[in-house]
Amino acid sequence: MSRRTILATLVTSLLAVLAIAQEPKPDDQYKLGPDSQPQAGVPEGKVTEYEWNDSKVYPGTVRKYWVYVPAQYNPAKPAGLMVFQDGGGYVKRDGTWRVPVVFDNLIAKKEMPVTVGVFINPGDVPLKPGEPPRKRPDGRPAGPKNRSVEYDSLGGTYSRFLLEEILPEVAKTVKVTSDPAGRAIAGSSSGGICAFTVAWEHPEQFGKVVTWVGSFTNIRGGNAYPDMVRQAPKKAIRMFQQDGKNDIVNQFGSWPEANKAMAAALDEKGYDHKFVVGEGTHNPKHGASIFPDTMRWLWRDYPR
């Protein structure tokens, strides 16, 4: 092969790689709107950071959590409540989700109730002296060690942690309603199935659920939920569900198919349910872009 032919082949390959790199990705279309940006004249709520290192439900774990209290909060009127799993990803005002900014804007416009946000990280296990930082198989830093145990497991253990440990701590500084219609729980991926599990186990505590790219797959048995929903009496749960057509397919199952199965079961049982399907992959861009409208739908008739 001549030098000219080799050079031409290399140029053609490089152009092909560049063309692929420049192709729009499914998630590029999803952008944050004005409700996710700070607005002039809108009162700003306060976010306070805490640590919880004395869990009896998950002994040996440590974690941070944050509490957002809106500027309109009045101790004489218990506020609504919304709990977020993987809380650190939601609580930043300049982050992907910007939940405090959205809450500020929608509460000011009376498009959602005065609502306290609780943002909880999954539990981690501290490194032992001399132990190197944990890494994933691809070399990236590992996430909190207890995340899958807490989030992907079915049953009531995480609910106990939330109801017996974290929320009583929150109640020491702020009053929230006991009305399940005024209490929501949300999460993405494994945090999404965790949110549903809490409401499923305790609909008398949480009447509203939001899941984004929820892991209703067989990581720890979550693929059983569609059948469980069909077989159980309908519960007082309103659910917003989002997924993307290009979500994960791996050894645990297909996220798009699992979410469709979950949505079908909820609809068949007559749940107050909305399922939004986009083009995205397994990331928060679509969910974050529609988060303000999700809140409007979720809280549309509360307080009654």
**Judging by the overall fold, what is the CATH architecture?**
3-Layer(aba) Sandwich
What is the CATH level 1 assignment? Alpha Beta
Largest sheet: 8 strands, mixed
In CATH terms, the superfamily is: Alpha/Beta hydrolase fold, catalytic domain
Number of domains: 1
What is the subunit organization of this protein? single chain
- Rg computed from alpha carbons, rounded to a whole number of angstroms: 21 Å
Spatial separation of the terminal alpha carbons? 78 Å
CATH fold name: Rossmann fold
Specify the overall morphology.
Answer: globular
Question: How many beta-strand runs?
Answer: 10
- The pLDDT mean sits at 95
Estimate the helix proportion, in percent.
Answer: 25-40%
Q: How many individual helices?
A: 9
Protein name: Putative esterase
Signal peptide: 1-21
Region (Disordered): 123-150
Keywords: Signal
Overview of this protein structure:
There is one protein chain. About 30% of the residues lie in helices and about 20% in strands. It has one domain: 3-Layer(aba) Sandwich (Rossmann fold). Helix 2 packs across helix 9 and helix 6 (about 225-230) runs parallel beside helix 7. The N and C termini lie far apart (about 80 Å). The protein is globular. Helix 5 links the parallel strand 5 (about 185-190) and strand 6 (about 210). The longest helix has 20 residues, at about 5-20. The strands form two sheets. Strands 1-2-4-3-5-6-7-10 form an eight-stranded mixed sheet, sandwiched between helices. The chain has helices spanning about 5-20, 100-110, 145-150, 155-170, 190-200, 225-230, 255-270, 285-290, 290-300; strands spanning about 45-50, 65-70, 80-85, 115-120, 185-190, 210, 240-245, 250, 255, 270-280. The chain is built from nine helices and ten strands. It is α/β, with parallel strands linked by helices.
